[in-house]
Structures are given as C-alpha cells and as structure tokens.
Amino acid sequence: MSLLSSAEEIDSKTTHDSENPMKIWRPAAFLHANLPDPPQPYAIILLNQPIENDRLFVQICKNASLVIAADGGLNRLRHLSLQYDIGIIPHAVCGDMDSVHPDVLDHYSNLGTKVYKDPDQYSTDLTKCLRHLSSPEWKQYTFRHWDRYQTLGKQDKEDEVSKQSSVSLADTLDVLVVGSLGGRADQAFSLIHHLYAVDEDPQIQCGDVYLLTPESVIFLLRKGSNRILTPVAKSQLGENVGIIPVAKPAVISTQGLEWDVQEWRTEFGKQVSTSNHVRSENVEVTTTERVIFTVDLGCID
Predict the structure, then answer these.
(1) Could you tell me how far CA 265 lies from the centroid of its own chain?
(2) In the chain, at which end, N or C, are there fewer CB atoms within 10 A of the end residue's CB?
(3) Radius of gyration (Cα) for the chain, nearest Å?
(4) Are 169 and 139 in contact (CB under 8 A)?
C-alpha cells in the first residue's frame, strides 16, 4: 500500500470560491453506453496501437463529435472494422503517412475521410492531430447534435457556426486519446509527455485532454485546486488511483481517498502516491505543481 461523501453534480468545468478557481474533471463522462446528449462534446484521436478494448472503443465513438486517426491508427481501425463490421468512418487522418497502408488510406479517403499529410519530423503524429484539431475548420464538430447539423443547408450551417463564433474551441471540445502504455517504453513516456506538452504548445487550442488506455483514464491535474468526478458506485470507474509527480516535485492535499494526505510532498525517488482507493463520488486534489492523475476503468455497460 502506498500513501498517497457524495456531492451534488457540478455543471461547469471550473467552479470558483472568492479567490481559488477549482478545476472540474469528468473522466467518466465518455463511458456511458447510450447517452442521449453527451455532457461535453469531445473528439477521439486513435493512435497507431492495438485496440485492446474494442467494445469500449466502439462505445465511445458513438457519442464522439469527431474521430481522427493518427497515421497508422487508420490501419488499426480498418482491422477492427473487418473483424466486427463496426462501420466507423473517421472524419480525418493526420500524420506524415509513413505508417498507414496505401490501400487503407484509399479506402477511407473514398468514404469521405479527410487526409492531412504533414511531413514535419520534429513533431509526432499525435501532436499533428492536436494541432489540426485546433484549426477553425473543426468548429462545426463541436455541436452536441452533429447528426442534426449534417441535415442543415449551407446557409443554415453558416448561421449555426456564426452563433458559436464567440465560444472558444478550448471551452467546447475535449479530447480523448485512445492508446496504450504497454509495448515500447519510449512511446509510453511520449504519451505522458504529450499531456504536459498540450499546455505549452501555442498551436494547440482544445479542452481537456484524457488518455484512455485499456485499463485506465489518465490526465494532468492543474496547479491549484482540482475536483475529479468519480462515480465509482455506478461502476463507470474503478477504485484504484495514482497521483504521479512526473515533471517536478509537488506538495499535495487530497480529500475523498482511502488514504488522504495533507501538505504531503511527493517526488520521484522519494515517495509517490499509487494504489490508493476512491472513497467518494468526488475526489479533490490540491497541488503546488501539475501532476498526473490515473484512475481505473470500471465495468462498461
């Protein structure tokens, strides 16, 4: 074992007291089987890694506003489609196109998938996807009812987009990166690096970024006060959590875990919080630095 009350639903992504803004995180928001209206529009980025939890992947695609494949991620989707006839057609594929098979690229391109080739070798395919996702042309995909938007005429579409002109993309579209921390160690570290890099790249403008692995949801807590909605009782999430200070040491305080801490210094090589357990519908973490938060997936309906 490592160290590391049910509350009302929060409607905003950030809530405020007199001086301290509290960041709200919803790692279970994507995990409902049949949401009539997802609580927050989101995009999926599929990496070039095996889709180990195919049932979960198909489920989250049903409610996604946008699905983007990162280069060879398109091969993974094609393989899954041939196995199960799932019929998911991504809106775009981004990358340097050194991994996607030509026949797979042609197949999806003929079905309407947009192809964005970026030969830059100093950025990863995931970075390319996040940057393309931040461009103005994706504004239309932030609608909660994308099916309804598709039925509109050209002028009506333009009117709908103009209504959102005052709404920042960063406030409307979260990103769910589907990948794995298994396999090559350097790629696993790269994925964690991207969670930090999103905040530092001026070309990336999006909402919250979550990394979905076959067993966990992983995201980067902001410096200051964070509230994580953790509906463990509804089996959407598991109980095991970790708070990991990847970039630099941090001092954290927690509420809602089995082993809560107060003003506790965490640092690689000294002490880190792993294998803790959720004991509330909301977990609160206050931290002096950005830290990784990871929580198990629960039973998917």
Answers:
(1) 27
(2) N
(3) 19
(4) yes
